[in-house]
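Workshop exercise sheet. Pairs work together: one partner reads the sequence aloud, the other fills in the structure field after running the prediction. Swap roles for the next sheet.
Pair: D.N. / O.F.
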Amino acid sequence: MPKDFDVLPSFQRGTIEIPPIPQFVFDRDLESELAAGLTAADAITLYDHMLHVRLFEETIVQLKSGRYKPIPDFRFIGATHLSIGQEAIAVGAMAAINPDDYITSTHRGHGHSIAKVALALETASTEQLLGFLGDSASKYEIDEASRESIHTAAMQEHLFRTFAELFGKEEGYCRGRGGGMHIADFHFGHLGANAIVGGSYAMAAGAAMAASKLKDGKVCLSLVGDGATNNGIAHEAYNFATMAQFEDGCPVIYLIENNQYGMTGQQVGEVTGTLRLARRGAGYNDVNMHAEVVNGMDPLAVRDAVRRAAEKCRNGEGPVLLECLTYRFKGHSLSDNCEAYRSDTEECAWMDVDPLKTFPEALIAAGVLDQAGVEQRQAAAQARIEQAAVAAAAGTDPDPSTIYEGLLADSTSENIGDEWKTPEGELLSEPSKARRDGQGRILVRHAVAEALMEEMLRDRRVVVYGEDVADYGGAFGATRGLIDLFGRQRVFNTAISEAAICGTAAGASMAGLRPVAEIMYIDFVLMAMDQIGNQAAKNRYMFGGKATLPMVIRTSVGGGKGYAGQHSQSLEAVVTMFPGLKVVAPSSGYDLKGLLKSAIRDDNPVIFIEHQHVYTSKDAVPEEEYTIPLGEGKIWREGSDITVVAYSHMRLVAEEAAAMAEEQGISVELIDPRTLIPLDEKMIADSVRKTGHLLIVQQAPATGCFGEHIAFKVQEACFEALKRPVRIVAAYDVPPPMAAPLEEENIPSPEKVLRNIKEVLGK
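Structure field:
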């Protein structure tokens, strides 16, 4: 780390030693485990829940084909990515972690969800069980004096909610918003299944980072498929989780469910060059991420490996990488019969080690159950599954009028208590504000640092990270000095890993932190669009409004510096198109500070767009506490002839043009929306009703721009008030050029804005 760790030249001859990676360490049978302390009841519980997973999935098969006799007329739609054959991993892993530990899951995650909650319910208190049931308790005949009675109802409700989610019912875990590929349950730390292959990799690292920084003792178990390990986010997440500056480690367990196939591509001998995916761990730290290969067809082996991994994580030795070998008995989905890429010989060999065949045999051999007892467990599980499926099919279809419910949180951290305040003893120096000039002005980039400092002092859950934000203070000096006050626990650098930066922020925010992550240039958000658009933006809604993601991604717009096409774009329209995000683009130091503080306190993901030309301007910024609500525009100049809407640096350009217009007798009303999402449509429409003319100024090219959205909203709201067509002053539809004459022509200037003002007015 800069100044703490000197990197000196060393060219000594030698070899790099890589420790061996153990395989199939667990060599005990059920009888040995019983002798070592596993109870017969616990062994039966493992079997029961493997049955629940298997029978649930087999019910989906029958429903999809229309052959499920209990509800023959029910039409099941939606994804069918089944985990038949992989039950030992789901149940064995969940039996090894604590009820409040986190998990992230995959598109093939029904089993993970069933097992996570089912195993948590096994150890839940009566109070927790009743809390889980909530109002649903009235559906069941419960003896409140009997924990067993309450547990039975809770388990039935769990299966019901799981089916209901797959069926798109209001009673589902996510109110039918997510379905089977996006199921979550925040009662017991299930942070969500993910339909994007590898999509949860970084979120798991972020949740684990939150657990470490909040010192709550939790670990995050991230279940990923073998195909996901070949995705770029896997590399970024592994690297993030193993950063040496995490002195207490990152308590995440990456458990690869290697079922041998991505979709149809075979991992061994086709789409990778290695026999074991666990070898990947050698690339990230000197202990191979404690990588191990595990028999994923044996719930006891999985339980043992995950238990040891969790212990390492709780002892500050994480992350851990486990590769569990298993097999997908069905195709990628039910439209895939596997005939094109799998042999009968291969399938039969794996069927011989089916955990739903071998584990009941072991129960009988160990004297835990006899054949009649096994059959009784099967019948009981089948009855529970059937009851849940029938009840879910009769569930409530969501009311279309509720379609917006769950999209955005209404809450903020505005009224937090003193328990979250940063203790003075944790500060490394005395907090100080930026020095003002005689007019109370500071550089706008100093307003960024001041807002961050104030919010970090106010709330110790706020952490700042990104590329070069620590010792260097960010590429533009906007975070300079924060590390000297808060230290590397709260302000730290990351690798050049935009997807990991944004994804970990999403995961950390769902696990209790309030991260402020920096993406140096907005051009680079394109490297992270899955994590921004598919994860952060969608998680709250997909999970039925139950997830909260208080995170800010700060980024900046360039241009005018000769940096050309990949460092000069204004890509606000890229992020405004994703429902679930708020987007802010201030144009002054006063607004930036007040809006950034509000963004940090907001319980939604916020993309906060700063401008590099605004950084170096000065503005009067109060030292005392203030915030500016998101969604409120600002009238910078009142006028009567024409409304000009401009944001970010273009507001300053429009200001010059308005002053020039005034000299020519034209009265311009200049509005800065400040927040693009939500947009202050009323302020703009009211102004247009007064002036009858609208000009929008922006740095981005015109085609598909945010200005077009503003124009649409104005025409929708007050078309009759418009005396002439709306016009947008924008960059040309070309990538930003480097040459000075071309760049000068491309970016709207005050003169160009003035010319367009006059043309719109017919002058």
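Discussion prompt: The chain has three domains: 30-397, 418-620, 634-760. What would you look at next?
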